[in-house]
Specification:
The complex is a heterodimer. Chain A is an alpha+beta fold. Chain A has a single domain, classed as Roll (SH3 type barrels). Chain A has helices at residues 38-47, 81-84, and strands spanning 8-12, 21-27, 55-61, 68-72, 75-79, 87-92. Chain A has a 6-stranded antiparallel beta sheet with strand order 1-6-2-3-4-5. Chain A is globular. The two termini of chain A are 21 Å apart. Chain B is α/β, with parallel strands linked by helices. Chain B contains 29 helices and 9 strands. Chain B has a 6-stranded mixed beta sheet with strand order 2-3-1-4-5-7, with helices on both faces. In chain B, a hairpin with a 2-residue loop joins strand 2 and strand 3 (52-58). In chain B, helix 5 runs antiparallel to helix 11. Classes of the chains: A alpha+beta, B alpha/beta. The A-B interface holds A 26, 33-38, 40-41, 43-49, 51-54, 60-67, 69, 73-84 and B 63-64, 66, 68-69, 94-98, 101, 243, 246-247, 250-251, 254, 258, 280, 284, 286-287, 289, 375, 378-380, 382-383, 391-392, 416-417, 477-488. Strand 5 of chain A pairs antiparallel with strand 9 (483-485) of chain B, so a sheet runs across the interface. The complex binds guanosine-5'-triphosphate and magnesium ion (MG). Magnesium ion (MG) binds next to helix 1 of chain B.
Amino acid sequence: MLTLEVVEMELPLTALREGESGVITSIRAGFGWGKGGGYGLQKRLMDMGLTPGTKITVVKSAPFHGPIEINVRGYRLAIGRGMAEKILVEVQK
Amino acid sequence: MTEKKLKIALAGNANVGKSVIFNQLTGLHQHIGNWPGKTVEKAEGTLHFKGYTVDIIDLPGIYSLSTFSLEEIVSREYIVDEKPDLVINVVDASALERNLFFTLQLLELETPLIIALNQIDMAEKKGIKIDLKRLEEKLGVSVVPTIAIKGKGIYELLEKAVEVIEKGAAKPSVISYGEEIEERIRRLTEALGKIRLKYPARWTVIKLLEGDEQVKKEIYDLSPEILQTAENLAREIEEIHGHPCPTVVVSERYEVAGKIAREVQRILPRIKPQLGERLHEVTTHRVLGYPIMILIVLGIFNVIFVFGGYMSEFLNGLLYGYEPLFEQLFGLNPLKEIIWGGIIEGVIANITIALPYIIPFYLILYILEDSGYLARAAFLTDTLMHKMGLHGKAFIPLMLGYGCNVPACLGCRIMETERERLLTGFVVTLIPCAARTIVILGLVGSFLGFYWALTLYVIDLIIVFLLGELAFKVLPGEPTALIMEMPDYRLPHFKTVIKQTWFRLEEFLKISFPLIIVSGLIIKLAEIFNLLEPISRFLNPVTVTWLGLPEITGVTLIFGILRKELTLVILATLLGTTNFQEVLTPLQIFVFTLVVMLYVPCVATIAACSKEFGRKKAAMISLLEIILAISVGGLAYRILATLNLLEH
Ligand SMILES: Nc1nc2c(ncn2[C@@H]2O[C@H](COP(=O)(O)OP(=O)(O)OP(=O)(O)O)[C@@H](O)[C@H]2O)c(=O)[nH]1
Ligand SMILES: [Mg+2]
């Protein structure tokens, strides 16, 4: 018998196309300020509202490996691509 | 009778309008503009109200009371250590949820608080309506609606602030977290027992669970065991929730903020996209964004060039017309020579060369800043900035540098790490500020044409980029990632634009005129006593042999360190004309301007640099730029002469 199943996938934010939404599952950044992320930046992201369980929508992705514009909690946020790769989201397809 | 003193601090997220409110209250002029992170240091002003002397403090915008960034440290330390009588939490009504997240932290800190619900006009445009009464009930603090930019609600805000201080604030609501966290808060509070830091117990405990380094350190100094307990409890929470404890705490606080926001606001979605939205789409478009950026920049320089050139000529004719009259009055004697040549000519040169360019320049730059375009430019240039080991936000101080390098140096604080601030500061000092633009447009633009002036800007950008890359090699390290709020576009507020332009102009006039008069006098006197020659002769190998300039330019270059436009003004004073064509060849005009554009930032910038980065680094930057200017100038002289592109 065939059952239609909702497949949930965990992807980096960069895998989303413009206009697609996902729910944050975790942010995989190390510790310390440097190294393209780090706890300081992770904390900053959370303080700006990117906590696990939050729905975010990708609005735009800049060319040349540029940053990503997202919509989160009703405002517009730009995130560098390196950081965006560390944000994991769950998408319902 | 001495008036009673009150201290009121303005705190809140970045770009919500704190500085506008501060300016309205105090009549001072803090930098305002439409991008996050303008105020980097606290500012104070006073006002008198109902028998009180009220100190108002403008704080840097922050998203959280943590201690990861400089702005957070400045704001938190002020609120915690100085204990103001009241904090006015300025809240952006159009992004309520994120703003409330910060409000909740102020409530946890138990600071006496009222809320200025600002930008309700912007919120309305987005279709957001907020129920003030409900919001007051939910938070247990007074809420005053304001439209700061139009001055609406400011008086009521002040009235309410004083009233609350007099009566004592009502008991604000306590936010409760989920049961798992609350239980651990209880246990940790018990463990804390009688130990008290300068914060309320609950706040201390929450911050411990949140992993706040500062609080952890303070507790560790008093009792390492409590820290151990905190870490154990945090691990328990982590096990239950599957996320690190700080993440859980922040998530739950956001959940509370979100719940309150949903309960008090109604959002009617707009059917037609607003003009601002469309503009945003076009100006950040993956293809169109870049040509638009180039067009904007070219357009700006063209307007300034055309308008400035026209005004300059007009004023020149007007003011030099007075020389014969002056001669008749004073006759031709040494006194006339000193007064006319030393003072008046300098003043005229300043009026005819500097003002025509500087006024439209400030005006346009400010309109650009207040519209919100800078944040878009930062978004577009992020990748480029990575090549210099920076990220897109660095583009903002860079753009500000075109106005003046001094605030731009301070603006480097929006960068996250020491290394990035220094790198940004270094490239910022290479950006031709308004004063250098006066020289570029007034000299090269007027006598060689717009395209030669543009060439200088392009050469400058190439140098900035190459040196930026080189500096990145010297100071390697992974660039931090860009995280930046992009505020909505705004129609720049006419009165504010005029006011800000005027303040900047006033500053310019206040410093430049006295300086020009004094330097003019010194030069005239030095000329009379034959002191200029030895100096010029000493610099001869550089100026004449290497750069191919007239010997006298050595003196002007020295004075130019005070202020860059002085090079031109003094040159005019020394040569006795602003028609530089008569005394300099086109090639000399070009090389002279190139050197002026690149050699050491002015004293004010050097001072700002040494304040931000330390004396040694400021000295190094200055020295490096002198060497750079002389090398590039000499090379340009030889290349252009060989190619015969400019008459020499
Ligand atoms: N439409 C509208 N714009 C406002 C209002 N209040 C402030 N602004 C604009 O909001 C922008 C930010 O204002 P600022 O006062 O510089 O913000 P700030 O909170 O001091 O920002 P930072 O110093 O960067 O933290 C400026 O462009 C202001 O003109 C308002 O009530 N309505
Ligand atoms: Mg401010």
